[in-house]
Amino acid sequence: MPENKDFKVVNKRVKKIDSLALACGEPMFTDDIDIKDMLYAKILWSPHAHARIKNIDVSKALKINGVKAVITYKDVPRIPHTTAGQGYPEPSPYDTYILDNKVRYVGDRVAAVAAETLQAANEAVRAIEVEYEILPAVFDQLEAMKDKAPIIHDEKDSKNIPDAKRNIAAKFDFEVKNKDWFGEADYVIENTYRIPYFQHCAIEPHTSICYFDPQGRLVIRTSTQVPFHVRRIVAQALNIPVKNIRVIKPRIGGGFGSKQEVLEDIVAALALKTKRPVKLEYSRKEVFISSRTRHPAFMRLKTGVKKDGTITDADMEIVLNTGAYGSHALTVMMCAGSHTIPMYKIKNNIKFSGKSVYTNMPVAGAYRGYGATQGFYGWETQMDIMAEKIGMDPVEFRKKNYIKLGEGSPVFKAMGEGREGVEQVITSIGLDEAIERGLKEIKWYEKKKEYSKWNAVNSHIKKGLGMCCLMQGSGIPEIDMASATIKMNEDGSFNLLMGATDLGTGSDTILAQIAAEVLCVPNTDIIPYSSDTDLTPFDVGAYASSTTFISGNAVRKTAEKVRDMIIEVAAKILDEKKENLYLKDKSVYSKNGKKVSFSEIANTSLYYYNQHQIIASASHIAHTSPPPFSAHFADIEVDTRTGEISVKEYVSCIDCGTAVNPTLAEGQNDGAVVNGISHTLSEGLEFSSNGTPLNANFRRYKIFTTKDIGNIRTILIPTYEPNGPFGAKSVSEIGINGPLPAINNALYNAVGIRLYEAPFTPDKVLRELGKKKNV
Amino acid sequence: MKKKELSLDKDGKFDISFVLNAKELKVKISGDETLLELIRRLGYKGTKKGCDTGDCGSCTVIVNKKATLSCIIPAFLVDGCEVTTIEGIGSISNPHPIQEAFVEAGAVQCGYCVPGMIMSTKALLDENGSPSDEEIKHALDGNLCRCTGYVKQIEAVNIASKKIKK
């Protein structure tokens, strides 16, 4: 049970701090400012999947009226780096150049232009003449590992590619062997699962504006999740000092991982070249093709199970398609195992074999779920298959096997993100309650009976229920670091300066709530300002479900330091011992009833006595990554004439520890779930045989709209995570992992078929129904 | 949108007159300028560009009482029209009940789609003060959001309709 703290601000549904301004259309996003004399950038993208640039002639482009610069690989430093916005040293290979004399996918950078108008920039891009030597290309990750497959990274100067000759961008193997493989299993089940190219579809396109401050330093105002990594990686790629760069993160129009990529190097290069402000705004098509995607996956899962419901062995192989560059190649692949295998106890043997493979396809990167989405699709489908095989209720089978409070897993230590992980045991879990509540909310047992009757008499519309269990992490232990600064103002309000990056998630609000809770003020007395590399302390940024847990702890510690400083001053004013003082309602009270207000304390410290600014900073790294847990339940209908699946009801119960702001926590999960349902039923980039994306727009890459959603419900299951700020764990990513398996299991329940390749489009459903009929 | 002869000046530009957020304006535009480009050029940055192909709804404004995608409307078509953007319905100091409802429901996450969503809601509620959930879903169908899953946004429209009726 939660340690029921009597919270004043935390766990309250306070309004999101920036929401009214956003709802009023205040100019808050990257592109919402007008900068004088700004140039417009456009990029020439490769029309070929794999080619060498034999010759490139920009003379005609330069002659176009208004064109100020055209840059090719000849004009920029050639420094191998990664675009993955990760901590240093990044676990992704250094295989990317600002511009190169080789292109590796349709949509790769060839050259870039800056011009007085967008029209001139577009015209100049069209006027660049390129002679290509077209090279053989490979599009499938399994094909790309074969002998004689074209080598995509044959350049000599790339770094940290484990096996460039076989196009392997990352690999990781791990085995725990206690007994003979599958020796104890009554049944051995093996299946393969495939996931295609999914795109994040943040509604704000990737946008960056570079300009110069009065000292000539480069200012990058950009839609990023990782401002400090942008500063470091742009400095690296352009070979300029970090001190000459300032990165400002305004409000961000969603990221979901796609803005954890450092793509700002090119616009910075154009600004340096022209000495003028330059804006680069991706078109929607460019976002689809040339920003980043989820890693397509091939996964083979072989599991052994005993009749009593014991899982004996798990052999998981995953091969990710990382596309032309290895951004997040190692870490997404490792998380596919590290976030899934510990979910259930595996008695004897565990094996994980992972690879991320280069192909001549769009570049994959971080995407909400980060490998766990790919992994759980297979795992949670296979859990149902195993349960059926041994004749056990799938809910009971999961309850028997899921990781319990105080338990660990060899995987936690063996598999971290890009390196060894950290040993940990589960310190909070509300999965039993989540499952029970979900069963009740969706009326699981009543509907099961009802649907089996319905399906027996209705030939066309079939109904079914499916569920799954999930876990994720809360930040990357012993890698992610966050820090914050708090200073006190005359009226007893506080500025909260932090590197934590609110990209629309509401982290400014929840972090202000955490500070307010410690300092005993309403959250409106905390003025958060996030992510400006000149003004705020460091934070790795918004990824890995880290902000609440890691940045939240940094803010808590900072606020505690400030609290101690406040008490110090109050003790002098009240002539009391510090230990007799406590904070309450914007004042310090002594046990014998004396009181001094925050504003008097602030004014004393600023103007009267022992003058100093009440200000403190603190940093936080975590030694564990407490998983949030969740149980998802899908209630679907399948039209056997059209093959269409519709999700009538979807209930997800989530244990995220203390929800710092329940409304925002629900919103995070609702959004993740609908994104996951949309993945499952309608999304996926399609390509021509030469690797050209065919549906890189919202008309043909279908994401869910209001009309597509059924009854979606998020239920928070409170627990108290002792290592989290006020008991909180992460919430943002876990929800996206559920719909693929939960709907797959519901599909089986409705019509007796399972799909091993997402998305579950009507054609696939009809094909499998046809096969079933013919058997 | 009425028909009218528009005469070009020597730069190939021409004047249009229209009402923007209750202000009468006369502006010089070029023939290929979209309404979205014009609005943003005039400093109204609340109207957003998400796709530029009329598929995401972030650029929704109200033209003569109808929710309209400003990214695919040539600016000259609004000559003589009444155009309302998000800035025209409320402000931080005096928000419209729909804006308040979106805040109260927790329907604003990144907020990029929200101005468009609010304008679609405004057009809906001006026509139908008590929409059903189905009618709300129909009216907001053209407004893509990747953050919220639409759950709290539909709730926001319900809250707004109650607020306006009061």
Name a few traits of the molecule:
heterodimer; A: 775 residues; alpha+beta; Aldehyde Oxidoreductase, domain 4; Aldehyde Oxidoreductase, domain 3; 19 helices; 26 strands; 28% helix; globular; B: 166 residues; Ubiquitin-like (UB roll); DNA polymerase, domain 1; 2 domains; 5-stranded mixed beta sheet; 5 helices; 31% helix; 16% strand; elongated
Overview of the structural elements:
- The complex is a heterodimer of chains A (775) and B (166).
- Chain A is α+β, with helices and mostly antiparallel strands and 775 residues long.
- Chain A is 28% helix and 23% strand.
- In chain A, strands 3-5-1-12-9-10-11 form a 7-stranded mixed β-sheet, with helices on both faces. Chain A has a 5-stranded mixed β-sheet with strand order 7-15-14-13-8. A 4-stranded mixed β-sheet of chain A has the order 16-24-25-26, sandwiched between helices.
- In chain A, strand 14 (311-323), helix 8 (329-338) and strand 15 (349-358) form a beta-alpha-beta unit.
- The radius of gyration of chain A is 27 Å and the shape is globular.
- The two termini of chain A are 51 Å apart.
- With 166 residues, chain B is an alpha+beta fold.
- Chain B has 5 helices and 5 strands.
- In chain B, strands 2-1-5-3-4 form a 5-stranded mixed β-sheet, covered by helices on one side.
- In chain B, a hairpin with a 2-residue loop joins strand 1 and strand 2 (23-30).
- The model of chain B has no long low-confidence stretch (mean pLDDT 95).
- At the A-B interface, helix 1, helix 17 and strand 26 of A face helix 2, helix 3, helix 4 and helix 5 of B.
